[in-house]
Amino acid sequence: MSAEVLRLENAQKSFGSVRALKRASFSLHEGEVVALLGDNGAGKSTLIKSISGVHPLDSGQIYVRGAPATIRSARDAIELGIETIHQDTSLAPDLSIARNLFLGREPVKLSFLGVFAPLDRAELRRAASALLRRVGIAKKLDADAPVRTLSGGERQSIAISRAMQFAAKLIILDEPTNNLGLEETHSVLRFIKEMREAGHCVLFITHNIHHVFAVADRIIVMRRGEVTAEFVVADADLLSVESAITGADVATLMREGKSH
Amino acid sequence: MVAVSETPPAKPSLWSQALRAPEFSSLIILVIVLAAFAFGDSKFLSPLNVSNMIAFLPELGIIALGMTLLLTAGEFDLSVGAVFALAPVSVMLLAQNADFSLGAALLVGLAICVVIGAINGILVTKVGISSFLVTLSMLLIVRGAALYVTQGFPLKAWDRPGPLVTLLAGSFDWGPFRLYTSLWWFIVLTLLAIYILDYAKLGNWISAIGSNRSAAIARGVPADRVKIWLFILTSILAGLAGMISAFRISAASPVAGTGYELEVIAMVVVGGTALTGGRGTILGTLVGVLMLRAIRNGIVLIGVPGLAYNIFVGAIILAMLVLHAALQKNKARA
Ligand SMILES: Nc1ncnc2c1ncn2[C@@H]1O[C@H](COP(=O)(O)OP(=O)(O)O)[C@@H](O)[C@H]1O
Ligand SMILES: [Mg+2]
Q1: Could you please report the per-residue DSSP string of A7-48?
Q2: Which pLDDT value is given to residue A235?
Q3: Residue A162 domain-assigned?
Q4: In chain B, which ranges are continuous DSSP H helix?
Q5: How far is the C-alpha of B213 from the C-alpha of B235, rounded, in Å?
Q6: In a domain? residue A228
């Protein structure tokens, strides 16, 4: 098996009395696409938010490329090569595409000035349009246009290209195809495959099991804050995966399936 | 440079961009307003009247710069008018009654502003109370403090000139115009604010925080820290404006700056900065400051009765906001 990118052991996270994560463990490897499945409220978003530094874990250990890592903030995660596209949009609608692409990592001149350093606008435009061209949407989009003016799918593409640009080791997408049209959904799935080919590891959350079978190599199922099942897509069948998600046992599902 | 071959797709011309900018429509209206007043009363453009307008301009203008940055980050500050009073009152009390040198007293005054801003910022970001409630309470506390320490009376007149007083409120003649050093403060601070908001990395963060806070945080932008510093900056600028004003008229009053918070917010939004955050323009604010100042001054000159005068100011602000909203809709459709 190829090198381990990230491993999580016994992750725990509570919001007040809600135990969103209780002892969740799993690992991810280079060049694989992993689908994270589970019912609403299973703890999927909380899990990825803990890896991306939005909600630091209460307890548990994260290993990045084998070494123990502490992720207390989004910056920590980004510096470890973890890029996340959150369920709630990750873009600032009033900022231009270019400024969104480089938000938090702006190219500057006179960098000793810290936050007062002037943006390198020429570099910003150049890098942004190069990136947009690379993901195949340069013809349609002007890097200076505010994100507010884009469609949902275009925004998702922007968010994804941002994740790609810093050659992140691990790219996490939380329900990336939600609210997208057919065409846009396909381009997102295509992106996911391209990222795998480029050697990135992709972890994505979805409720659409067909998308899982179309692009994923492996499936991780969560229930009530725990990782309860894992599948290799090549050997998995729809029914067992669905029963792992709902918690029903396979025999029952088979019987129901036959009676229809 | 290599950038030439990488030119992105067709960009709207500078001119058409300018036409659609919110500050541009404000500018047009400003010109119309100025022309109308000049036409209505020839005294409007007289050196004396222009000097008067320019003398008042920086005092609200300096606060408006801080408020623009704060609004762009999605917050606002209702305590600025009270800080405008408390800062000079404290400075003059310390210097007149407590034997502080003016320099030391000014430092204490600034420190008070920093503390007020920091408390505002920390309560808003770390405790999570809305800036409306936090700064409204702070307005009461600070105004109350100014009244309490002075027992409600204006302080005795300031009669000790010196380099620091000249630095804050000196004046000089330029042709027929009498100008104050506060104008330089305003010009320099305006340029700095333009630089920060439009050219520096920090400005990108400020706009991003106001536009989508969680997105900015997810990119590693320290949103809370930026907001706290903006509250501090706004407070410092309000205190500085108060000191400039007090030393210009050689007196500090505990009721100075009453109502300034709303006037300043009006200047900022009239200029095209979004009250909801994410979009701010310092040039627009400059237009807004000039506009409200000119309206307040011109209305008196053309003989609108003093008591009717807020009706006009309110109506013009509303008209401006309607215009911005219409332009914004147009843009979204385009
Ligand atoms: N910020 C939060 N505050 C309080 N409870 C939360 C928060 N985020 C998630 N939860 C709770 O944690 C549980 C898991 O939620 P989540 O991770 O969003 O599930 P999923 O993404 O799998 O649908 C749910 O019960 C949810 O209500
Ligand atoms: Mg979720």
Answers
A1: EEEEEEEEETTEEEEEEEEEEEETT-EEEEE--TTSSHHHHH
A2: 87
A3: no
A4: 14-20, 22-40, 47-72, 80-97, 102-122, 131-150, 163-169, 181-194, 201-211, 213-218, 223-248, 260-270, 282-301, 309-333
A5: 22
A6: yes
Q: Which of B10, B211, B221 faces A93 most closely, judged by CB atoms?
A: B211
Task: Give domain status of residue B334, yes or no.
Answer: no
Quote the pLDDT of residue A1: 58
Residue A165 counted as domain residue: no
Question: Residue B162 falls within a domain, yes or no?
Answer: yes
Q: How many domains does chain A have?
A: 1
Question: Could you tell me which residue, B331 or A103, shows the higher pLDDT?
Answer: A103
Domain of A190: which CATH number? 3.40.50.300
Place of tokens 């305590």: B79
- Cβ of A20 less than 6 Å from ligand 1: yes
Residue B18 lies in a domain: no
Boundaries of domain holding A199: 4-91+170-259
Give the pLDDT confidence of A52-77 residue by residue, as tens digits: 988 889 999 999 998 999 999 888 99
Q: Which residues of B touch A90 (CB under 8 A)?
A: 215, 218-219
**Residue B158 confidence class, pLDDT cut points 50, 70, 90:** confident
Which residues of chain A are at the B interface, by a Cβ-Cβ cutoff of 8 Å?
Answer: 52, 54, 73-75, 78, 84, 86, 88-95, 99-100, 103-106, 108, 113, 115-119, 122-123, 125-126, 128-130, 132, 138-139, 141-144, 148-149
Domain span including residue B199: 25-36+43-327
pLDDT in tens, A188-232: 888 888 888 888 899 999 988 888 999 999 999 999 888 998 899
Per-residue pLDDT of B233-250, as tens digits, reads: 999 999 999 999 999 888
B205, B211, B331, best to mutate vs chain A, most A CBs in 10 Å: B211
Decide if A164 is inside a domain: no
Residues sharing a CB contact under 8 Å with residue A27, sequence separation 6 or more, in sequence order = A4, A6, A7, A8
pLDDT in the model for residue A255 = 61
- ipTM computed for the complex: 0.79
Q: pTM (2 decimals)? A: 0.84
| Domain count within chain B | 1
Ligand nearest to the CA of A13: 1
Domain with residue B217: its CATH number is 1.10.3470
- CB of A41 closer than 6 angstroms to any ligand 1 atom: yes
Q: Evaluate whether residue B206 is within a structural domain.
A: yes
